[in-house]
Amino acid sequence: MPAARLRPRNDPGQYDDLADQWWAPRGDFAMLAWIADARAALVPAPRTTTDLLLDVACGGGLLAPRVSGYRHVGVDLSRPALDLARDHGVETVRGDVLRLPFADGTFAVVVAGEILEHVADHRRLVAEVCRVLEPGGTLIIDAIAATWWGRFSAITVGERIPAGPPAGLHDGALFVNRRELLDEAARHGVALALNGLRPSARDYLLWAARLKTTVRMIPRGPTAGLFQAVGTKTG
Questions:
Q1: Is-contact 32 142, C-beta < 8 A?
Q2: What is the dihedral of CA 59, 185, 145, 52, to 10 degrees?
Q3: Which CATH superfamily is domain 3-232 in?
Q4: Neighbouring C-beta atoms of residue 20, cutoff 10 Å
Q5: Could you read off the pLDDT of 109-164 as tens digits, one per residue?
Q6: Which of 180, 86, 200, 48 is nearest to 127 (CA)?
Q7: Which residue, among 198, 106, 193, 104, has the nearest Cα to 158 in the 3D structure?
Q8: Is residue 5 scored above 60 in pLDDT?
Q9: Mean pLDDT of all residues in 157-180
Q10: Which of 11, 86, 97, 214 is the most buried (most CB within 10 A)?
Q11: Angle, vertex CA 153, rays to CA 79 and CA 180, nearest 5
Q12: Is 28 exposed, middle or buried (0-12, 13-18, 19+ CB in 10 A)?
């Protein structure tokens, strides 16, 4: 049994244990690559040649080859993941996502993918990503909703199917209250719009049958499970 399975739910050490899975097309993080495609689709074209993009909890750098034109900065706690991200062109910083080591208004785009549901203090994280975003900049978040469907799809079923999250990676008690997310972002000048995100059933079946190498994530529908949030900072 892999070491990650022996750790408590949501233990950050699991990402160190599973570092060799970040870029494995059929590995434990396969769905994270699919979600990175959907996340990248929300990143606007850079306005200048010096625009900075912050990848919060960048992991192994899956977003890097999917966006271009930005100076791509990634922050994470996992040293093995940061080593991989650096190999893929990310300027890496080891740091706490609840205390981002950057000045106010530094980044044209801030992307926080699959991290809110791994921290207890959602308000602090939202405040931090909004703080380091420049006025007129774009905030992109994806997360799992604090609903029975979110827990069922990500844990009860998700941990039992190919490409689903590894067992123990999530703690359903930390999933995200969408109303609180919207309100907190608005307090910091970012009006977020939400949309649901789900894998294409056809693509998934073809992927499982090894007839397709990736799976499209469909960015529409209910937000009660996996969802995206995107908005622009005013002021």
A1: no
A2: -20
A3: Vaccinia Virus protein VP39 (3.40.50.150)
A4: 13
A5: 999 999 999 999 999 999 999 999 999 999 999 999 999 999 999 999 999 999 99
A6: 180
A7: 198
A8: no
A9: 95
A10: 97
A11: 75
A12: buried
Structure tokens, 91: 């300027």
Q: How far apart are CA 67 and CA 46, in angstroms?
A: 10
pLDDT at 7: 87
Distances in Å between the Cα of 19 and the Cα atoms of 95, 114, 169 are 18, 16, 13
154 and 226 Cβ atoms separated by less than 8 Å? yes
Backbone angles phi, psi at 149, to 5 degrees: -70, -40
Give, in order, the Cα–Cα distances in Å from 192 to each of 4, 140, 227, 228.
Answer: 34, 9, 12, 9
Q: Is the dihedral of CA 216, 23, 67, 187 positive or negative?
A: positive
Name the nearest CA neighbour of 122 among 69, 172, 185: 185
Rounded to 10 degrees, what is the CA torsion of 147, 149, 152, 153? -120
